[in-house]
Amino acid sequence: MVTVTLISKPQARVGGNFRVIKIPEECYRCKLYGICMGRLRPGRAYRITEVRPLKYPSPYKCLLNGDEMVPVVVEEENLILPIKLPYIIEGSITSFDKSWCICHPCPSEEALPSRVKIIKVIDRRQCGSGWFFLVEAKPLD
């Protein structure tokens, strides 16, 4: 999913990646929250695909670091997830059950999607008496 958000000017470069670990308390009080951190999900990773130009210096400064904020287009990165199903078809859409994270580490619980699109099957592994697939998946929520 493509999203326009704000990032500090020193970090705004095409191809740059960042992960939102947690939204700081200061962000909730900021008047830019709705177009900045409010558009991102904790635990998810993003890649900057475009830096939008500003004709004038931005009057908006980040409450955390004091940097000038600039608009960027970001795309959510795919997740590596375990899927415990009898078979997997790349391109298919399936629900995701967080109980599948027992045998393979998953992103933080708040970052886990309820539905995913399978992009690529990476591996098939055994867990206890069963098997699961390790996949690259695009979150759909």
Supply database-style keywords.
141 residues, mainly beta, UPF0179, UPF0179 protein Cmaq_1008
Summarize the structure.
This protein has 141 residues and is mainly beta. It contains one helix and eight strands; from the N terminus they run ββαββββββ. It comes from Caldivirga maquilingensis (strain ATCC 700844 / DSM 13496 / JCM 10307 / IC-167).
Mean pLDDT, as a whole number?
88
**Global outline:** elongated
Q: Quick one: how many beta strands?
A: 8
Q: Rounded to an integer, what's the Rg over CA atoms?
A: 18 Å
Beta-strand residue fraction: 35-45%
* Main beta sheet: 4 strands, antiparallel
Low-confidence stretches: none
InterPro entries: UPF0179
Protein name: UPF0179 protein Cmaq_1008
Family: Belongs to the UPF0179 family.
Pfam families: UPF0179
Give an overview in words:
- The protein is 4% helix and 40% strand.
- The strands form 2 sheets. It has a 4-stranded antiparallel beta sheet with strand order 1-4-3-2, with no helix packed on it. Strands 5-8-7-6 form a 4-stranded antiparallel beta sheet, with no helix packed on it.
- It folds into 2 domains: 2-76, no CATH class; 79-139, no CATH class.
- It is built from 1 helix and 8 strands.
- 15% of the residues are buried.
- The chain has one helix spanning 25-29, and strands at 2-8, 17-19, 45-51, 69-76, 79-83, 93-95, 115-127, 130-139.
- The chain is mainly β.
